[in-house]
Write a structure and sequence with these properties.
Organism: Collybia nuda
Keywords: Signal
Protein name: Copper radical oxidase
Largest sheet: 6 strands, antiparallel
Helix content: under 10%
CATH topology: Methylamine Dehydrogenase, Chain H
Number of strands: 44
Bound molecules: 2-acetamido-2-deoxy-beta-D-glucopyranose
Radius of gyration: 22 Å
InterPro entries: Gal_Oxase/kelch_b-propeller, Gal_Oxidase_central_sf, Glyoxal_oxidase_N, GO-like_E_set, Ig-like_fold, Ig_E-set
Number of domains: 1
Strand order of the largest sheet: 7-6-3-2-37-38
Structural class: mainly beta
Pfam families: Glyoxal_oxid_N, GO-like_E_set
Length: about 550
């Protein structure tokens, strides 16, 4: 008897059989610049940004502060970025152009003020990045406000929403805030919208954690507070605080993610882990690099009942600050990098360990953890079978899922300038964390349309290695996000309903219902069969037009 399973009903039931191949760290290549920010810009390339400093990779007679990292050859090619991208943000528009947002005043005469800059990286067709570069134009590509440490998020109309930041010169807390929201392309004639939420969450509201909900509203977490922002009416609705005084935005960087969304309801849940329970009023000189970070995870379901229930607390396996959460194509969440004690930044807290010298943090978290969202409360976190690295990834490091399905890890520089004498020295080595599926025969996906309209069924051909059971087939549509300061802005996983043909040679998939469930723009489709994940296929979700784009697809059933 043939069984046509409605497969996405059980998105998290993954085979738990231990693979002899296991997870592995593999070091390969050096970036030549500090990978302070990273974003995957094509199936073969990651775009890296560093602050203006004395990086060894050179271009046009000065150090490079941008580079394209080739994921196939493990070689970095310098890019001539002229304005300072120090602690900037970024993301893709609905037409596939990547935008780098904000930065700082440059400390070199070779560079320019990056605080109001918008930098474009147009879709890059060449696999090695030839001819692809960062476009800067201080006259025409400009924010309305100076923004250092802002966040950004692609929203339902394909624009980027740009949130918060500071003007300059704050070395730890946000003492010079820009408590407003603006958009690119501009809305409201370019006039920023003031945010009472950002005002209330001072002085620890930098890099607010912001998430696009499936109804088009935005959930935000800053300091120990949360709220829902309605872009269309410019209204803020305060939600419960994170319990137990735990603060999760810079300089107390916890990490946060929107958990995978599944049909038919796409119920949004947000998970926030780590950070610090420091009060936020202690002068920085009285904090130490040995203060234990928070080991709290807090999770909330963003429905009326879920909000009434509030945040549900769980415990990490160790305290963590500046870690990052990566959505995996099977719906699990990888928690990686960061430290177990101290704070974000460098050179500001007292009692910095003698060997660490400038780092505000210490005791790196060398072992990743896996979080299984639909396991029972109390048994979701595990590092069983996880390897440990010996490369510290502290302040100014970045990490991303790659289109091949492994994890790219780079950067770390809790120092002023490029330093090779401290224990937590400037780090140029790239490491990959390879999941078990990287070393076994994997399923493959072919003939996926390059453009995916919403609510659109399509049939792809598949090759599924013999030996994989097809009771559990998952198809994930993913935005791989922009990595900076423990946060992957715009990172997203939406499971798509899929029916595998009985002969295992084709699969019929239905794209997400509309542009609010998946904000239109570039994405990757991954197929996971029996816990083994394919390489991701690059697609454009929506009509690929320049924002703001119209609503597309069908409304969700209520
Ligand atoms: C590093 O990457 C290059 C290019 O992909 C490859 O040829 C080489 O074998 C890799 N080295 C290691 C140690 O994995
Ligand atoms: C959040 O922090 C504020 C001070 O910044 C404090 O008044 C409030 O009690 C905290 N909330 C919780 C739930 O701890
Ligand atoms: C703050 O966090 C530390 C480290 O996890 C813990 O030992 C301490 O009890 C917490 N303090 C409060 C008031 O919750
Ligand atoms: C830093 O120092 C180590 C040895 O102390 C050396 O192997 C490494 O190449 C140096 N790195 C740089 C970027 O100079
Ligand atoms: C996408 O839109 C932006 C903003 O209007 C524009 O600058 C950029 O050139 C567009 N990219 C493409 C590929 O059309």
């Amino acid at each position: 008897m043939f069984s046509l399973l409605h497969l996405a009903l059980f998105p998290f039931l993954v085979s738990t059989a231990p693979s002899p191949q296991g997870w592995h760290f593999v070091q390969n290549g050096t970036t030549g610049i500090i990978a302070l920010e990273a974003i995957i810009v094509s199936p073969t390339l990651a775009l890296l940004f560093d602050r203006v400093q004395n990086d060894p990779l050179q271009i046009n007679g000065h150090p490079a502060w941008g580079a394209l990292w080739n994921l196939d050859t493990n070689i970095a090619t310098p890019l001539d970025v002229v304005s300072d991208t120090f602690c900037a943000s970024g993301g893709f528009l609905s037409n596939g152009t990547m935008v780098s947002i904000g930065g700082n005043v440059a400390e070199s005469p070779d560079a320019t003020d990056g605080r109001m800059m918008l930098r474009l990286f147009e879709p890059c067709i060449d696999a090695s990045g030839a001819g692809c570069t960062v476009i800067e134009d201080a006259q025409s590509l400009r924010l309305a406000a100076n923004r250092w440490y802002p966040s950004s998020l692609r929203i339902f109309d394909g624009s980027l929403m740009i949130v918060g930041g500071m003007h300059e010169l704050a070395s730890f807390y946000n003492t010079d805030p820009e408590n407003s929201i603006e958009f690119f392309p501009k809305k409201d004639n370019g006039i920023p919208r003031p945010s009472p939420f950002l005002e209330r969450t001072l002085p620890a509201n930098l890099f607010p954690r912001v998430f696009a909900l499936p109804d088009g509203k935005v959930f935000m977490v800053a300091n120990n507070q949360s709220m829902i922002y309605d872009i269309e009416t410019d209204t803020e609705t305060p939600l419960p605080d994170i319990p137990n005084g735990v603060r999760v935005t810079n300089p107390f960087d916890g990490t946060a993610t929107l958990l995978p969304l599944s049909p038919p309801h796409f119920t949004p849940e947000v998970l926030v882990c780590g950070g610090s329970n420091s009060s936020g009023t202690i002068p920085v000189e009285e904090l130490t690099s040995q203060d234990v970070a928070s080991d709290q995870c807090s999770r909330i379901t963003l429905t009326p009942e879920g909000i009434k229930r509030g945040w549900i607390v769980e415990k990490l396996l160790e305290p963590r600050i500046m870690s990052e959460m990566i959505l995996m194509p099977d719906g699990r969440v990888l928690i990686i990098s960061g430290a177990q004690t101290g704070y974000s930044g460098y050179g500001s807290v007292k009692d910095r360990s003698l060997l660490a010298e400038q780092s505000n943090s210490d005791h790196p978290a060398f072992t990743p953890t896996i979080y299984t969202p639909n396991a029972p409360l109390g048994s979701r976190l595990s590092n069983q079978g996880m390897p440990s690295t010996d490369i510290a990834r502290l302040y100014h490091s970045s990490v991303s899922l790659t289109p091949s399905g492994n994890i790219f890890i780079a950067g770390s520089n809790p120092n002023k300038g490029i330093v090779n004498s401290t224990i937590f020295h400037s780090e140029f080595r790239v490491e990959y964390l390879n999941p078990p599926y990287m070393s076994v025969a994997r399923p493959t996906l072919h003939n996926v349309p390059t453009t995916l309209p919403f609510n659109h069924p399509f049939t792809a051909t598949v090759e599924i290695p013999a030996g994989l059971r097809t009771e559990n087939v998952q198809v994930a549509l993913m935005d791989l996000g922009f990595s900076s300061h423990g946060f992957h802005s715009s990172s997203r996983l939406v499971f798509m309903n899929a029916i595998l043909a009985p002969n295992r040679e084709s699969i019929t998939i239905i794209s997400p219902p509309n542009n609010r469930v998946f904000p239109p723009g570039p994405a990757y489709v991954f197929l996971t069969v029996d816990g083994v994940t394919s390489t991701g296929v690059h697609v454009m979700v929506g009509d690929g037009k320049t924002p703001p784009v119209k609503n597309q697809g069908i409304q969700l059933p209520l």
